[in-house]
Automatic annotation (TrEMBL):
The keyword Hydrolase does not apply. This is Non-homologous end-joining DNA ligase. GO terms for molecular function: ligase activity. InterPro entries: LigD_pol_dom (IPR014145), MtLigD_Pol-like (IPR033649), NHEJ_LigD (IPR052171). Coiled coil: none annotated. The lineage of its organism: Bacteria, Bacillati, Actinomycetota, Actinomycetes, Kitasatosporales. The gene is ligD. It comes from Streptomyces yaizuensis. Keywords: Ligase. The keyword Ligase applies.
């Protein structure tokens, strides 16, 4: 029998709690649900009012993966959805995870959370910029950290603050709060940053996705600023062999890794201690009282 639990007044069936999702560490679905419950205070502000896309991996990262933008079958009526017009379906809607019951319902599906750079009340008007630093072997996270430091200085010269997080996969993400700006304008600015990075660091940075050019370089993926694109949300678990998290980093950690120190990788079990030690490093991205600078 599927156990029923109550979360903030909502009754939720939570299934297969003993099922091992990450075999490398023996991490169970119940442990994943616990992670999301205790991390909700940090995670929810990054999901709130943003249409969510799910990457589902109910049989673990070695099983079949499903990427979906549509509300999954059986979505409860109390889970909020928002209209997200698509060129192929102007009536499309997506789930919006605003509260703990919605988060736990979604987590029970075993998902990664992916969001656009805009909110449901202002589609295609971005309030943040993202740069996905993706290394081509033999380059790795250390090289991503070196590129991140250059980009941080370049953004600061334009009056913009950058915040770093692990992708939870093999690279880094840089997030930059900006005044609400059409996504096309943010995309163009982000591409300009990538081009400038390649000009300044030609042996290390690449602004094009061309596979033949990737070995040994860091691709600065600016494309996720397009209105139709999404990025793994801060604090989401990833469908990897280990239960990695897309977790905020301090700039000291980034600089240390770029200088040959430990390569940042954050696992699910590390997050509570990191929040105790550093607090919510990405809070400026969700603080409604904080001024957001315009793009130059």
């Amino acid at each position: 029998m599927t156990p029923i639990t109550e979360v903030a007044g909502r009754r939720l069936p939570l299934s297969n709690l003993d099922k091992v999702i990450h075999p490398a560490t023996g991490t169970t679905k119940g442990e994943i649900l616990h992670y999301y419950a205790v991390t909700a205070g940090a995670l929810l502000p990054h999901l709130r009012d943003r249409p969510v896309s799910f990457l589902r991996y109910p049989d673990g990262p070695g099983g079949q993966l499903f990427f979906t933008k549509n509300p999954p079958p059986g979505t409860p009526a109390w889970v909020r959805t928002a209209p997200v017009p698509h060129t192929d379906d102007p009536g499309a809607r997506q789930v919006v995870v605003d509260d703990l019951p919605s988060l736990m319902w979604a987590a029970n599906l075993v998902v990664e959370f992916h969001t656009p750079q805009w909110t449901a009340h202002a589609p295609a008007v971005a309030d943040r910029l993202v740069l996905d630093l993706d290394p081509g072997p033999p380059a790795g996270v250390a090289e991503c950290c070196a590129v991140a430091l250059w980009l941080r200085e370049r953004l600061a010269a334009d009056g913009l603050d950058a915040y770093a997080k692990t992708s939870g996969a093999k690279g880094l993400h840089l997030l930059v709060p900006v005044a609400p700006t059409p996504s096309a304008r943010v995309s163009a600015y982000a591409k300009g940053l990538a081009v400038a990075g390649e000009a300044a660091l030609p042996r290390l940075v690449l602004h094009r996705m061309t596979r033949a050019l990737r070995p040994g370089k860091v691709f600065v993926d600016h494309s996720q600023n397009a209105a139709a694109k999404t990025t793994a949300a801060p604090y989401t678990l990833r469908a990897r062999a280990l239960p990695t998290v897309s977790a905020p980093l301090t700039w000291e950690e980034v600089a240390d890794a770029a200088d040959g120190g430990p390569v940042p990788m954050v696992l699910m079990g590390d997050l509570a201690d990191r929040l105790d030690r550093y607090g919510e490093l990405l809070a400026p991205l969700t603080d409604p009282g904080r001024a957001r600078p315009p793009l130059p």
